[in-house]
Amino acid sequence: MRVVVGVGGGIAAYKAASLVRLFTEAGHDVTVVPTESALAFVGKATWEALSGKPVRTSVFEAVETVNHVRLGHEAELIVVAPATADLLARAAGGHADDLLTNALLMARCPVLMAPAMHTEMWRHPATRANVETLRSRGVVVLDPAEGRLTGKDSGPGRLREPEEIFSAALALASRRELGDDQTDDGGPLAGKRILLSAGGTREPIDPVRFLGNRSSGKQGAAIARAALRAGASVTFVAAHLDVPPPAGVELVKVETAVELRDAMVERVAAADVVVMSAAVADFRPARRHHSKIKKRDDVPDAPIELVRNPDILVELVRRRDAAGTQQLIVGFAAETGDNGADVLAYGRAKLERKGCELLVVNEVGTDRVFGLDENSVTILAKDGSQPQHVAGSKDEVAEAVVVRIARALDAR
């Protein structure tokens, strides 16, 4: 694959060297196109040695090859890392004042940009507007990682690790490779917008303690990755996760069930598919203490009064039905059997009660599902079709769920 790696002028440019090495060692044909300011951090010699190709920054170099047009035309993938605030602004504004921005304007291939900048720059309204503009044009803009920045500061703005960027780039380039459901328009979910929740909510008791559950978020993250490979754009509403959020999603972080409900309601109207894979707490403390509850021998232990959390899945179904849209809604049910009924019986009752089109049911426990890399689920459908049992890795289960979603959309 012919890959153009663009490098912006930030201290994180040194990490792009490892990214170039990952592409070349995987057998790809790599051309590095730094900005002039990027060369103040990492010189031409490094990029030429790693890529085996001459490195140019100006449209007035290699004019005889019409290089400023050829690069974008011939590229099968463009990855920009780091994408600085300035570079995002120039790309969003359609500037063509160096070789890299010319290549971006000429590109008809997938484009992925991995931002890196100070937290205040990332959060600035101008940068946020530029990111939204680029995403609206089909560019995949990764959310930066949180961590140590230049100097003593920490926060969102750190460049994602080269391995994460490499994985996201390959997933973007291979969206046409989802097995039997492959289509000529970029994948079975090409152009679809998926709103997906994942992870376990945490309900604060005091500043130290919370009510929570054992969800790791692994299955939700796997479904997000599978949906991206299938061509969808994914908004990922993340409660507590034991794994990094997938590269390539629009990330929305929440903690509590109420915060998750608000995030989903705010974004649901724009979604073609809603997947509620988050493990949402059924109850929360009626009172949140603003200081740590002390354990004292002279005072009786105070009981924790609980109140119900909103049923987010039911609310989303009701909103969809009231709007009269064709939105597809997928629920998840983590169930245990008891003397009254087995897991599937409880799953069928929940499907009836919730009103969603598909319900993914799995049996859970201290040694099942939560935190593990394997899963075993049964997909139930509102239309009464035969239940589908899927067992294997969480990635394999995710592929099956995405294929079932694609088929349900096709049936409509």
Automatic annotation (TrEMBL):
InterPro entries: CoaB-like_sf, CoaBC, DNA/pantothenate-metab_flavo_C, Flavin_trans-like, Flavoprotein. Pathway: Cofactor biosynthesis; coenzyme A biosynthesis; CoA from (R)-pantothenate: step 3/5; Cofactor biosynthesis; coenzyme A biosynthesis; CoA from (R)-pantothenate: step 2/5. It catalyses: (R)-4'-phosphopantothenate + L-cysteine + CTP = N-[(R)-4-phosphopantothenoyl]-L-cysteine + CMP + diphosphate + H(+); N-[(R)-4-phosphopantothenoyl]-L-cysteine + H(+) = (R)-4'-phosphopantetheine + CO2. Residues 194-412 are annotated as: Phosphopantothenate--cysteine ligase. Its cofactor is FMN; Mg(2+). Residues 1-193 are annotated as: Phosphopantothenoylcysteine decarboxylase. It comes from the Bacteria. Keywords: Decarboxylase, Flavoprotein, FMN, Ligase, Lyase, Magnesium, Metal-binding, Multifunctional enzyme. Its EC number is 4.1.1.36, 6.3.2.5. The keyword Flavoprotein applies. Binds 1 FMN per subunit. Residues 1-170 form the Flavoprotein domain. The keyword Magnesium applies. CTP binds at residues 282, 292, 310-313, 332, 350, 354. Residues 189-407 form the DNA/pantothenate metabolism flavoprotein C-terminal domain. SUPFAM superfamilies: CoaB-like, Homo-oligomeric flavin-containing Cys decarboxylases, HFCD. GO terms for molecular function: phosphopantothenate--cysteine ligase activity; phosphopantothenoylcysteine decarboxylase activity. Catalyzes two steps in the biosynthesis of coenzyme A. In the first step cysteine is conjugated to 4'-phosphopantothenate to form 4-phosphopantothenoylcysteine, in the latter compound is decarboxylated to form 4'-phosphopantotheine. In the N-terminal section; belongs to the HFCD (homo-oligomeric flavin containing Cys decarboxylase) superfamily. In the C-terminal section; belongs to the PPC synthetase family. PANTHER family: HOMO-OLIGOMERIC FLAVIN CONTAINING CYS DECARBOXYLASE FAMILY, PHOSPHOPANTOTHENOYLCYSTEINE DECARBOXYLASE. NCBIfam families: coaBC_dfp. This is Coenzyme A biosynthesis bifunctional protein CoaBC. It comes from Sinomonas terricola. The gene is coaBC.
